[in-house]
Automatic annotation (TrEMBL):
This is NB-ARC domain-containing protein. Residues 676-701 are annotated as: Disordered. It comes from Kitasatospora cineracea.
């Protein structure tokens, strides 16, 4: 027979009688009291200010539906970065739902029960059973007995439990009521994998910029917020979606009421991003202290990774361990709430990244470990970028050699097709472009040059000019620092094109002229002559681009001079490439001459494009340039009014561009198809192509 004892909160009515209690192995007669139990509602007060989380509150409300038959309660596991507002959300939702749970609502902060990182769950159950009406003298003496007593006490009850600061499912499991009519909200830094499939996960992301600003206005008060709206937005950016950081800003405003918001922003920048803020970072310090050696070292190394996220192989390169060990370390960081996983990548919140960097400097004061990690990472990225470029563009002249595999870390799976390799580069572009700067800053100039070279084909298919200009400009500095003459030529040519495509003609002119001047210092070897011809080709491309810009402004005389200069350079470059037997280089110059003829409205353009197309088609692995010459030929034919010949060529080029995943080529081909549809009296088709082209430009930049 289970205990018949009940407790009273705020007052007890007692009736004395004897209760017979049966326990394992013996029968005991106890004299006890039957007490009338009034359910306890022990949730802490809500935060004074709360914004957004509407969708998350709806999900919690939807979970507050009895699970049906059985004894396992509904469980909703809220996880997220420390300071993101998990507790505030659970407490707010608990108050809103408390009326649905007439048998009580209870808040359990497991950190209050921790000793050396482990919660005393027996103490938790003791307090919880007391709140549920079990007097101290009737509590079981062992942990298993307390768990069973809790199951007995909660069977069939409608209870709400908020379990805060849970770290593992094992900490939560003994606290689950034995009732499908109950609801348990857990708050943890990382996902609680072992709670089972019945537990619904709710990953709480940082607030958006607008809601962060709304919260700041509430915390700062009307006077401060109204005085400088722009400063409120700046403060919101500093807080980066963490309500805890916003509370720190509000506290600074109250502590220093006479400071302007701009001054508070300076102080908050120092506190959050340079020195670190104890109120914000306390939970991260605790989580870091409890990490295993590999996870702690990886936490400190992840800020070295360029770009906003890391993938498993880049993390393995940083750590210097195999994929299995690295995956375990990443999982530990996720569980600790120090890392998020989205869309196949691992991301550190900006403020966590700052914390990791500062604590990493403390753990590795001379930077030896970080330098070794950067070297491994750059080795891996440089090799993968070169492999992807080779698969995408085919063999071409480079000034830096490909590296061997990084020991212990497998190469990236680039897929079986060129389009797959290009998509890999596009998916990892932030890391690849950022790695150029990382290599330069780390004194690894050859890596910077090699990465920039390999990014060239990606830039042609996905021309993001700001990224490319920064990376190629950095590569020029790195090449100059090495003193390697071919690298100094190549990097200036790489830089020139994004410059002239942005209208920076003076800087582009300086780059191509310097490249040609440096090329005259090269010897007569095959590869050096090939590079010299390439430098002249880039100077011709620049002249062509400048001539097109002059023609667009109606400056016909200047355009004529530039087109003539372009023809001269392309002709000279073609002779060099033919002289060394470089059929691809010679075909490329035919293609450039055809583009120049098109810009100059020369009827010879169609014949030149046709010749270039034939030359490229005869070369193995040059489908990309064959498709581009098909596009050029189609445009020339359309301008000549030969519409029927143009259409199949454009269709061929479009198929090649979409298969390759080149959004840039697809957009311009669709624009040309729209022009052709207009010319042939198909306005609906023209509108469809223009709409798709506009969508690609908006989506891909």
């Amino acid at each position: 027979m289970s205990e018949q004892t009940h407790n009273v909160v705020g007052g007890q009515a007692a009736v004395g009688h004897l209760v017979q209690a049966h326990e394992i192995g013996a029968v005991h007669i106890h004299e006890a009291r039957t007490l009338v139990h009034h359910p306890s509602f022990e949730l802490p007060p809500e935060k004074a200010h709360f914004v957004d989380r509407t969708e998350e509150q709806h999900r919690i409300t939807a979970a507050a539906v009895p699970a049906g038959e059985g004894t396992r309660p509904r469980i909703l596991a809220v996880s997220g970065l420390g300071g993101v507002g998990k507790t505030a959300l659970c407490v707010r939702a608990g108050h809103q739902l408390a009326d649905r749970y007439p048998d009580g609502a209870h808040y359990l902060d497991l950190d209050e029960y921790r000793r050396e990182g482990v919660p005393d769950l027996a103490a938790v159950l003791t307090d919880l059973l007391s709140s549920l009406g079990v007097e101290r003298e009737w509590l079981r003496r062992d942990f298993r007995g307390l768990v069973r007593q809790f199951w007995d006490r909660t069977r069939g009850k409608r209870l709400l439990l908020v379990v805060d600061n849970a770290r593992t499912a094992a900490e939560v499991e003994p606290l689950l009521p034995a009732s499908a009519r109950s609801l348990v909200l857990t708050a943890s830094h990382g996902p609680l994998y072992d709670l089972g499939p019945a537990a619904e996960e709710l990953a709480l992301a940082p607030l958006g910029p607008e809601h962060t600003a709304d919260l700041l206005r509430l915390l700062l008060g009307d006077r401060h917020a109204a005085a400088d709206p722009a400063a409120v937005e700046a403060l919101a950016a500093l807080c980066d979606g963490l309500p805890k950081a916003a509370e720190v800003a509000g506290g600074l405003a109250r502590k220093h009421p006479h400071r302007s918001l701009a001054e508070l922003a300076d102080r908050l920048t120092a506190d959050l991003h340079r020195r670190g803020s104890a109120p914000v970072e306390a939970v991260w310090d605790t989580a870091l202290a409890e990490l295993g050696p590999d996870a702690a070292r990886l936490y400190h190394l992840l800020p070295e990774c360029p770009g906003p996220f890391a993938v498993l192989p880049t993390a393995a390169a940083l750590l210097g361990r195999d994929l299995l060990d690295t995956e375990d370390a990443l999982a530990e960081l996720r569980t600790a709430g120090l890392l998020d996983h989205h869309d196949g990548g691992y991301r550190q919140h900006a403020l966590v990244r700052g914390h990791a960097r500062r604590t990493g400097h403390t753990a590795d004061p001379d930077g030896t470990g970080r330098a070794a990690a950067r070297a491994r990472l750059l080795h891996w990225l440089r090799r993968q970028c070169a492999r992807a470029d080779l698969l995408t563009a085919g063999p071409r002249a480079t000034v830096q050699a490909e590296l061997p595999p990084l020991p212990g870390v497998p190469d990236a799976d680039l897929g079986p097709a060129k389009a797959d390799a290009l998509r890999w580069m596009e998916a990892n572009r932030h890391a690849l472009y950022g790695a150029v700067g990382l290599a330069h800053d780390s004194g690894r100039d050859e890596d910077a040059v090699a990465l920039a070279e390999s990014l060239w084909t990606h830039f042609l298919d996905h021309p993001r000019h700001a990224d490319a200009t920064d990376a190629f400009r950095t590569a020029v500095v790195a090449a100059d620092r090495t003193g390697h003459l071919p690298a100094r030529v190549r990097t200036r040519d790489l830089l020139a094109r994004p410059l002239w495509e942005q209208g920076c003609f003076d800087e582009a002119a300086a780059a191509v002229e310097q490249a040609c001047a440096l090329a005259t210092l090269l010897d007569d070897g095959h590869e050096h002559r090939r590079l010299a011809g390439s430098a002249i080709d880039f100077r011709g491309q620049f002249a062509l681009a400048r001539g097109e810009a002059a023609a667009a402004r109606g400056e016909d005389e200047a355009a004529h001079r530039d087109f003539a200069a372009a023809r001269a350079d392309f002709t000279a470059a073609r002779q060099i490439q033919q002289g060394i037997g470089n059929a691809y280089g010679a075909a490329l110059q035919t293609y450039q001459l055809a583009k120049t003829a098109t810009a100059a409205a020369d009827p010879a353009a169609a014949d030149l494009f046709a010749a270039a197309r034939t030359e490229f088609a005869a070369l193995p692995g040059r489908e990309r340039m064959t498709a581009r010459t098909s596009f050029g030929l189609a445009r020339a034919l359309r301008q000549l009014g030969r519409h029927e010949e143009a259409e199949p060529l454009l269709t061929e080029a479009l198929t090649a561009a979409t298969t390759r995943g080149s959004s840039y080529d697809e957009a311009r081909i669709r624009t040309e198809l729209a022009e052709l549809a207009d010319a042939t009296g198909h306005p609906t088709t023209a509108a469809r192509h223009r709409s798709r082209a506009a969508a690609l430009r908006a989506e891909k930049g």
